[in-house]
Amino acid sequence: MARPKGMAFAAVGIAAVAVVLLLAETGRRWAGLGPEEPVAVMDFTPTPERLARGQYLVENVMGCFGCHSDIDWAGTGMPRLGTEGGGGRVYDDTLPFSIYAPNISPDPETGAGTWSNEQFVRVLRQGIGHDGRRLISLMPWQETRHLNDEDLAALIAYVRSIPPVKNTVPPLELPDEVRRALVSFEYLTVPAPPADAPAAVRRGAYLVSVAGCGGCHTPYHPETGPYRHLAFGGGGPLHGPWGQVASANITPDASGIAHYDEAMFLRTIREGAVNGVRPLNHIMPWKYFRRMTDDDLKAIFAYLQTLPPVEHRVDNTEPPRPCKRCNGEHGYGDRNE
Ligand code: HEC
Ligand code: HEC
Question: How far apart are CA 200 and CA 250, in angstroms?
Answer without folding.
Answer: 18
